[in-house]
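Limitations
The structure tokens in this dataset are predictions for the assembled complex, not deposited experimental models. Users should treat interface geometry with appropriate caution, especially where small molecules or nucleic acid strands are included. An illustrative entry is reproduced here so readers can see what is and is not provided.
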Amino acid sequence: MTAAHQDAAVIDAAAATLAALSGLSRSLRHVALVTDDGFEVVRRPDTAPSDGRLASMASSIQALTDAVAYELQLGTAKSVIIASDSGHIIQLRVPGRELVLVALFDENETVGMALSMLRVAAERLAAALDTTTVQAVA
Amino acid sequence: MSEHVVLFAGPMGAGKTTAIQSLSEVPVVLTEAANSDRVTADKPTTTVALDYGVITLGGDEQVRLYGIPGQRRFNFMWSLLKRRATGMVLLVHNDAPRPFESMLEYLEEFGDLYRKGGIVVGVTRSDVSARPLLPDYSEVLHEVHPDKTIPVFAVDPRDSRSVGMALMVLVANLEMRAAFARDVEAVPV
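Predicted assembly:
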């Protein structure tokens, strides 16, 4: 089975989802879809070369969050929010997939609105992937 | 009770997670993700942040065991975990394409742990590939790091006694260095 970051169907669906998401908020500085093990699938903007750092860190943070939720018997972690002085990073898993959507918004967007936009994007991406030949997570 | 923080480092597929699972007396905290890179290591999952376990040695020495992700793209985790560690078990799988280079790369990256406490090398998967031999590793280490004493063991990460032996040698070294440091501090000036 082709890895998600090398799968044309996943890349195309993700690119379309991220393009649509980018049109929704001027505060969206960066958004990427990454695999659970830290490979970048697609990102926007993609003008500058990427060293994959955000993808790797998002992967580690997602795994640590899942581990904490598991250890404290909190069930499945829904999202990760890192609020900082000049913006917030939000990431969440694409439902049913070994993929994580991670976005950086500036301080002009509320956390709630940013989370909502990202959640809708993740659900739309999951639906789009379901209609392709990509195999869902068992 | 004395406490040590030991890193389990080494390339992807060397057996770091398995070694910590064999040793830990508490359920291991795992951060496994589905492995997209089956060419580098043909295994279903891979560590993407850390593994964490604990073992008590000799009744009063608690050792916190941290496993690092093997892939260089996670080297920000290496930096974070290295700061806390006092020693390292470096696992290298004998069937790797270039096991010596791999060993030396990690020694370069984590060399300051030698100064802080100590390093031991554990050669895994010798049952899969009989060569190179353990003395070959020692010889390479001596050539490249003639000023360092780094023991080399054959280790089966699935066997707690096997990997425990390497850990105990490391911890003995950590204790010896700590005692030496205390003695030096106690000498009146």
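Some entries come with short summary sentences. For this one: The beta strands of chain B are 2-9, 32-34, 45-47, 51-57, 61-67, 87-93, 119-124, 152-154.
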